[in-house]
Structure formats: structure tokens, C-alpha cells
Design brief:
The structure is a single chain. This protein has 421 residues and is α/β, with parallel strands linked by helices. The chain has three domains: 6-153, no CATH class; 170-330, Rossmann fold; 336-407. It is built from 13 helices and 15 strands. Strands 10-9-12-13-14-11-15 form a seven-stranded mixed sheet, sandwiched between helices. The two termini are 55 Å apart. The relative contact order is 0.08. It holds the Pfam family AAA. Residues 215-335 form the AAA+ ATPase domain. Keywords: ATP-binding, Nucleotide-binding. This is ATP-binding protein.
């Protein structure tokens, strides 16, 4: 890796040349002097009111990939960090140039971008600046960043989480692909959901254009916990060739984060926006969220998927007005047929007979998919250690736990004195 020059060195400054070591005007002047050598005297300094966070997200991923499209021309200060230790998707450490205190240059567009650290007596902050000499190339550069970011987003799921410090972005790999045939749902519901998904992303939404239908759609998945809403969402996310964004609503969700989320996803459309546990939207933010959904362009090209375990808590305004959530699908408790199918696919027949499996399908009435998965786990563990299994006993324990959960009654003689530390 070549050694980049540093423009401002602490030992070269004094009160006569710079009133404050971190006076960013001096830094910008030094940056301009360097860039004029590359871009010529037509150099312009550009700031933005809309925020360019997506540009820096793209830069970060280009740096991780050692992409030749980007160069690091120089560092700004010699007493501010110039590299960052990151963890890659496979949990390995990697050292990359810091997004702050470095000058990034894109030769193809003759654009330089810099995030300058500014330290003053009353506050510390960073400021973003773009240098260019051709506005047309600058717009091409911004579009390039969007397209690059969109292609990067196809490799995994982008997670946006509202935090006290603002919207936090991360990326998760789909480590276990859930195939559509593995999703256990009422067949009509399953067909309707996947058909609407496929048509939305088929040939640039040609179906919507052909029938003059607004190119946006929203579905709400509701039902009791543990019956496959998340599995269905994972299957959808892993089976479309479009960016998928998962938005984690928290107590910190507010008007600013709502605006930022929809600004981000609109640029990446056509894409999928998933909002799990949508009923947890803070009360004071709900009207802003509804107004955003009603916006003429904020949902263009967006397939919105909301989920909730508690449909009674959902604001009726969400599903009683076109353009918000167009359809609501109940993800029901599995019936006898689905319970048998699930247990069969889990491989329970390696431990029990066909007749026992038929009986289990009846005896597990009321259990969720998650509880059926626990049944399989318990059966496998007991078989592994005992080479035999008492399936009826395991089912009885699960049914008893289910009753206690429903009644919130955990204090029976059997449990008294056994909980605690």
C-alpha cells in the first residue's frame, strides 16, 4: 500500500498561521491546493443539504473490497486516526482507511469527497464536503454510488436500527436459505403472497404498468408468535433479486429516522422493506409514519411487509386505507395436516413409527411451529442419550407449558422453589 501525504502537520503550525489547529477552513484550503493539481483551476467546493450518508456507505464497502474505482489521495491531520479496525461478515478483523480524515478521489468522475473532523471549544463534529469541476459528472457520480450500493445490498440483508445516536446501519448474510417449499402455510395464502411478490419484481413491474396500477404494495402478516411469520419473511428475502431492508423499530424511532429510512429505501427501489413488530411504533411517531406512507413518491417501487403478533394493537388506519397495507394475511396456528407435514420434514420418522407420527399430529393440537420444533429437538436429544424416547411425555410437558403461558400461571407446586439463583 502506497504511503499518502499528510497535508497539515502539528509541528508546522503556530498561532500566526492558524488560530486553532483544527480550524477547518485551513484544512479545506490545503485540500483544494492538492486537488487543483488533479482537477485544474476549475475546482468547486460543494456542500449538500440532503445528506450523503449513502455515499459514505458505498465508500466504506468499496474500501473493504479494494475497489480500483476509488483512491485515497492524502490524510488531513497527522494527529487524527487514518485507519479503522472493522469486522467482516465472516467475523474476521480487517483494517481499512477511516471514512474521516482521508481524501477519497474517484478519477472516472473527477470527484473528491472528504469528511473533515472539526474540533472547537464548544463542540466536536464532522462535516462532509465534495470537490468537483463538472456538475454533470458529479450527478453521474451520485447515481453511480446509488447503483453500487444497490448491488452491494443484494449480498445479504441491510438492517436499519433506530438508536439513541440515530439510525444505525448493518448488514447480515443469509446463512441459511429458507426455500419456499419449506414454508408451511395455508396454500391459498402462500400462493397469493408469493404471486404478488414475483409479479412486483418481474420485468421492472410491467404488470403494474400494463394495468395502470400504482407501483407500490404493502402486506401485513399477523398471528400468534412462533407460527412462521419470520420464516416466511426470510424465504421472501432470500428468493428475490432485489435489495431487502429490515427496519428495526425501537423506542427511539422518531420523525427524523422515519424520514431517513424512507429516503434511503426510495433511492434503492425497486426493493423490499420489512418492518417486524410494527405495533411497537411509538405512539408519538405513528401519525408521521402514516403520513409518510401516504406520500406520493415515498413508496414508489417499494414492497412493504409488516408483521405483528398483536393485531389488536395495530392502528386501524394502517390497514383500512389503500396505499398503506393493501392486504392483511393471518398466519394461523398449523392445523393437523400442517403439523404432520412439519414433523415429517424435520425427520421425526428416524425416531418413531408412522403410526406414532399420525398420533402426534393429533396430540399436538394448539402447538405453534416453534413448539413443534422444540418437540423435534427434545425427541432427538432423548434418543441420542437413551436410544429410546417417550414422545407422549414430551408432548404433555409442552402442552402444560403452553397452558401456563396462556394463563401466565407459573407457580404450581411442581415449580415452587425451583426457580431463582
Amino acid at each position: 500500500m502506497k504511503k499518502n501525504p499528510t497535508l497539515i502537520k502539528f509541528h508546522d503550525t503556530d498561532s500566526n498561521t492558524i488560530s486553532h489547529y483544527y480550524d477547518y477552513a485551513v484544512a479545506l484550503n490545503k485540500i483544494k491546493e492538492l486537488l487543483i493539481q488533479r482537477l485544474g483551476n476549475g475546482l468547486k467546493l460543494c456542500t449538500t443539504d440532503v445528506g450523503i450518508e449513502e455515499v459514505f456507505v458505498t465508500i466504506e464497502q468499496l474500501l473493504e473490497r479494494n475497489d480500483p474505482d476509488i483512491e485515497v489521495l492524502a490524510h488531513i491531520y497527522d494527529t487524527v486516526g487514518t485507519t479503522t479496525i472493522n469486522q467482516t461478515d465472516d467475523e474476521k478483523y480487517k483494517v481499512t482507511p477511516s471514512l474521516t480524515n482521508n481524501i477519497f478521489y474517484f478519477p472516472a468522475y473527477k470527484v473528491a469527497i472528504v469528511r473533515v473532523p472539526i474540533y472547537q471549544s464548544h463542540s466536536d463534529y464532522i462535516q462532509d464536503f465534495i470537490f468537483n469541476n463538472d456538475d454533470g459528472l458529479l450527478l453521474d457520480f451520485l447515481n453511480y454510488c446509488i447503483e453500487k450500493q444497490r448491488s452491494f445490498m443484494l449480498d445479504g440483508i441491510t438492517v436499519l436500527t433506530d438508536t439513541e445516536e440515530g439510525l444505525e446501519r448493518s448488514r447480515e448474510q443469509v446463512t441459511h436459505q429458507v426455500h419456499r417449499e419449506d414454508v408451511l402455510l395455508d396454500e391459498d395464502v402462500k400462493v397469493n403472497i408469493f404471486r404478488s411478490i414475483d409479479e412486483f419484481f418481474s420485468e421492472g413491474g410491467s404488470f403494474y404498468k400494463e394495468y395502470a396500477i400504482p407501483y407500490k404494495r404493502g402486506i401485513l402478516l399477523y398471528g400468534s408468535p412462533g407460527n412462521g411469520k419470520t420464516t416466511l419473511v426470510k424465504s421472501i428475502a432470500g428468493s428475490v433479486t432485489a435489495p431487502v431492508v429490515y427496519w428495526q423499530i425501537t423506542e427511539y424511532t422518531n420523525s427524523y429516522s422515519i424520514k431517513e429510512v424512507f429516503s434511503t429505501v426510495t433511492k434503492m427501489a425497486p426493493m423490499i422493506l420489512i418492518i417486524e413488530d410494527i405495533d411497537s411504533m411509538p405512539e408519538e411517531s405513528r401519525s408521521i409514519f402514516l403520513n409518510t406512507l401516504d406520500g406520493a413518491t415515498t413508496k414508489e417501487g417499494i414492497f412493504l411487509i409488516g408483521t405483528t403478533n398483536y393485531p389488536a394493537k395495530i392502528d386501524p388506519a394502517l390497514i383500512n386505507r389503500a396505499g398503506r397495507f393493501d392486504r392483511a394475511y393471518e398466519i394461523k396456528q398449523p392445523d393437523e395436516r400442517l403439523r404432520k407435514e412439519y414433523l415429517f420434514k424435520k425427520g421425526l420418522l428416524q425416531f418413531i413409527t408412522d403410526e406414532t407420527l399420525d398420533n402426534l399430529a393429533v396430540q399436538t393440537k394448539g402447538l405453534s411451529i416453534a413448539q413443534l420444533n422444540e418437540l423435534h429437538m427434545s425427541v432427538a436429544l432423548e434418543w441420542h442419550y437413551e436410544k429410546q424416547v417417550n414422545v407422549e411425555k414430551i408432548v404433555k410437558e409442552l402442552q402444560e407449558n403452553l397452558k401456563k403461558t396462556i394463563k401466565q400461571d407459573w407457580e404450581s407446586e411442581e415449580y415452587v422453589g425451583r426457580l431463582g439463583f
